[in-house]
Amino acid sequence: MAQALYRKWRSQTFDQVVGQEHVTQTLRNALRDGRVAHAYLFSGPRGTGKTSTARILAKALNCTGPEGERPCDVCPTCVAISEGRMLDLIEIDAASNNSVDDIRELRDKVGFRPSEGSYKIYIIDEVHMLSNSAFNALLKTLEEPPPHARFILATTEPHKIPATVHSRCQRFDFRRIPVAEIAAHLRYIATEENVQAEDAALTAIARSAQGCMRDAISLLDQMTSYGSEAISVAQVNQVLGSVASESVSAFVDALAQQNIPAGLQLIHDLLLAGASLQEFTTQVIEHLRGVMLLQMTGDSGLLDDRSPETVGQMKAQADRLTQPQTLFAVKRFGESVGELKGGHQPQLPLELALVEIVSGPAIAIGQPQSAPPEATVSQVAAQPVAAKSSTDQASAAKPSAHTLSTVQPDKADSTAAAEQTDDKAPPAPLDQDAVVKLRGQWSEVLATVRERLGLKQQAALRAMRDIAIGESAIALAFGNNKFAKDMISDPETAIQVSTILAQFVGRQVTLECQEGEHATLPAAVGRVVRDTRKNDGPDPLLEFAVSELGAEVKDEKKAKRRAS
User: Are 381 and 528 in contact (CB under 8 A)?
Assistant: First the structure.
């Protein structure tokens, strides 16, 4: 039976561990100086060499070879560990052996001396899966193990491990392996296995592994069974469901040229070709990240894992796109990835993201398309001088467009807005009718918040006591309910809530969350219209708990009188 490549080429010595020199060098020095700790904690992403390094350390501690060459990987002890038949190496999968009884059994056996080597090595994989009782049972043994015992704990989620365990271990953080190092190791394996592969194909495999060497080797193993003489980029793309880099670049070109028909046609062609739209969107985000790095730094050295042709395309696109457009595109496509899960029209979320990025948020909230694309990125502040010039030009031209959150348009955008407002009248000022209309639709607002944000945000918004509406802002007063105010005023939540409110008031607005019974807005925002909602009646959070969560209201005084 053939052995999987990731098992066949598992690291057997410190020299073979790829991309973790900060760990292997420290362990070598500890072995040389006789300062090996009694317990280690190896943490990091999956497939980066945690368990392999633990086995190598077990070899080095029990190796009978020359002291400066341990582990030698040829002595009987090293061979036994490599073949999985070393009695003194005990590997425990904490995912399936996580009870306190399992740890008690380990504690009872740890006192017995090793039968073959010098040390008994306990490797506990996925140690964060242990129960609290199991951790407590392990603590004393972990702190003061017998002289012949060593513990190596491995986990992908170190934040779930109690601090009492952390303090008893030396912790090593394994890092994601760079693309270049993964590709080089894949080239070595392919050469040793007599497998022909294009360098670009190996780079594509390495990039798709996202720093995980085991995933990269497994994909290489899969590609060797494809049936062709040599592994090509086209084969890798077909297996991964990804598309050629030319298609990704063409899609970003359509975005930069604001050519919606070309972008929609490309999405349609990819869907007919059977490509994975999720993988394609991920590639687009990665490509736009490169464009963003070039715009922010101008340093192409940050894209050393990309081909020179791709970097040249990114540079051209970085000149055509503005920074706010790129930032908004990365964010919007990132949101659409989670929505591409099938359905009647699986391509629709990606198509909507493209249209919104090119046309701006006006499409999403029912505004005229005169708003510049740069105004669609929230919380991207312009330079002070540019902001001042924009304000002067905007006040002279009396533009009707308002930006989301704290965005300030640049000079060109203000000029464009002024030219467009020459032919269009500014929006009518808000009045008491706007408050009444919003109050009448408040149940719909709450339903939308629950659908987009969740139950907790909806409950917090129910605690609102008063509303003040200005021409470009809405203030919400939450009384003395600081918990609800803080939840809604969270930057990301506030942006999403303001976007929802904009759909109901018919214009882009910012959101302010305040304490007290009355909501107020500064005079600079515009004329303020306050909702005259009554503050009496039951508490909104209490109503929500009863109506939505099935809670019961009990009178403690009556209960005490009955009990007495």
Answer: no
Distance CA 37, CA 106 (A): 19
Give exposure, 359-378, as e/b (b: 16+ Cβ within 10 Å): bbbbbbbebeebbbbbbbbb
Please tell me the CATH code under which domain 245-359 is placed: 1.20.272.10
Question: Model pTM?
Answer: 0.58
148 φ, ψ (degrees, to nearest 5): -95, 5
**Could you report the per-residue pLDDT of 73-111, keeping only the tens digit for each?**
899 999 999 998 999 999 999 989 889 999 999 999 999
What is the greatest pairwise CA distance in the chain? Answer: 91
The CA-based angle 254-258-262, given to 5 degrees, is 40
Q: Residue 43 has which token pair?
A: 């943490």
409/387 Cα distance (integer angstroms)? 7
Q: Which residues pair with 92 in a beta bridge?
A: 124
Positive/negative CA dihedral, 31, 88, 136, 153: positive
Q: Which residues contact 124 (CB under 8 A, 6 or more apart)?
A: 92, 94, 130, 151, 152, 153, 154
| Three-state secondary structure of 174-188 | CCCCCHHHHHHHHHH
Look at the domain 5-173 and name its fold.
Answer: Rossmann fold (3.40.50)
Per-residue confidence band for 544, with pLDDT thresholds at 50, 70 and 90: low
Fold of 179-240: Helicase, Ruva Protein; domain 3 (1.10.8)
pLDDT at 409 (0 to 100): 39
Query: Which amino acid, 72?
Result: C
**Confidence (pLDDT) at 232:** 87
